[in-house]
Amino acid sequence: MNFKHFTKVLLQWYPQNKRELPWRNTQNPYIIWLSEIILQQTRVAQGLPYFHNFLEKYPTVYDLAAAPTDDVLRMWQGLGYYSRARNLHACARQITQEFGGKFPDRYASLLLLKGVGTYTAAAIASFAYKEKVAVVDGNVFRVLSRYFGMTDDISSPDGKKAFQSLADKLIPKDVPDEFNQAIMEFGALQCTPKNPDCTICPLRQGCYARQHEMIDMLPVKIKKVKVTKRYFVYYHISCGEYILINKRDRKDIWEGLHDFPMEEVETLDTFELKKSVLMEKLKQFDAEIAYNPEIYFKHILTHQRIFSTFVKVQIALENLEILHQWGTENGWMLISRDAFENLGKPKLIVNYLNDKKL
DNA sequence: GTCCGGTAAC
DNA sequence: GTTACCGGAC
């Protein structure tokens, strides 16, 4: 395994490259805790002035606990994620009221604190008490996934566990605090999210991502696209050998593909043919209409779930000319079945035409 | 405009 | 298990 090499290089790299930051070189849990809460979701440069302001105004956890919540929130102004400030304050009161003013000194007990999750508990436990528990933050995901070629999804709980497990195997028992600082600093300064300079990387030998040209693909983070539901009512309007079709335009799915005239509705449950604007217009034609609301197609895209029904309209041949005119006015085309066959269509339409559900 | 990121609440 | 929370960098 490369474990030994990885850890050795990191521990060697860190003292030569680390930034001098005010919360390093202290084992005061209050200072470490304060800095870690501020640094959650926040870059060092942005958090630094807040850290100084807080420590000046609240030198001890008692000062912070005694402050009005409004003051704490005012101090936090501009830093974002304001639940952190509320939790910071609640945690300070927790410490003074439930823990006699003394921070818990073990990972498991630190997790009981408001606003302290696995990362922050590990950071405090290792930095203040040298407990051998690995921090896993965004930097650690990146460094480990790239060096070891770990493709687990970091946005899933299982993926997070896999990284925690690996980090816990890597962390040395003699200098767990140094290791935690080193791997995060390495991620922040050397193994950066974008354009890392691998030519000067001390871990380039043995780096999986570099050897496999996967720097830009790691870590794997599966985007949680929110799936929206949409409801389409399609009108399959034919006249002899001709059908009325629609070319889909920009700013929506299936740009440039062909489908039918349609109406998008809020939900199919309450859709009624007699309320349809299109049906109203179709009344001018001599037509035969078939619609079964029981039958619908479900179509799944990455970010959309489409439910659609089809209204079949057969128009008398003598209406061909006026149908063509009406279609043109609406930006549709009246073309032969054969011609439609040769146009690109969404899978949903193809499924319908193939009678998948009808 | 897109990406980034710990925790708690849902 | 999934989502809301915020501001800054690019």
Structure description:
Its EC number is 3.2.2.31. Belongs to the Nth/MutY family. The protein is an alpha+beta fold. It folds into two domains: 3-217, Hypothetical protein, domain 2 (Endonuclease III, domain 1, Orthogonal Bundle); 228-353, Alpha-Beta Complex (Nucleoside Triphosphate Pyrophosphohydrolase). The protein is 44% helix and 14% strand. The chain has 16 helices and eight strands. Strands 1, 2, 3, 4, 5, 6, 7 and 8 form an eight-stranded mixed beta sheet that branches. Helix 1 crosses helix 11 (176-189), helix 2 packs antiparallel against helix 8 (118-129) and helix 8 (118-129) crosses helix 11. The longest helix has 16 residues, at 83-98. The chain binds a DNA duplex (10 and 10 nucleotides) through residues 37, 40-43, 45-46, 78-84, 87, 114-120, 137-138, 156-157, 193-194, 221, 224, 226.
Calculate Rg over CA atoms: 31 Å
* Structural class assignment: alpha+beta
Helices, by number, come to 16
CATH class of the largest domain: Mainly Alpha
Question: For the residues shown, what is the average pLDDT?
Answer: 89
Fourth-level CATH superfamily of the largest domain: Hypothetical protein, domain 2
Strand content: 5-15%
Number of strands: 8
- Spans of at least 5 consecutive residues whose pLDDT stays below 50 are none
The CATH topology name of the largest domain reads Endonuclease III, domain 1
Total count of domains:
2
Q: State the CATH architecture of the largest domain.
A: Orthogonal Bundle
Mind summarizing the main beta sheet? Answer: 8 strands, mixed
- What's the N-to-C terminus distance? 59 Å
Order of helices and strands: HHHHHHHHHHHHEEEEHEEEHEHH
Helix content: 40-55%
Cα shape: elongated
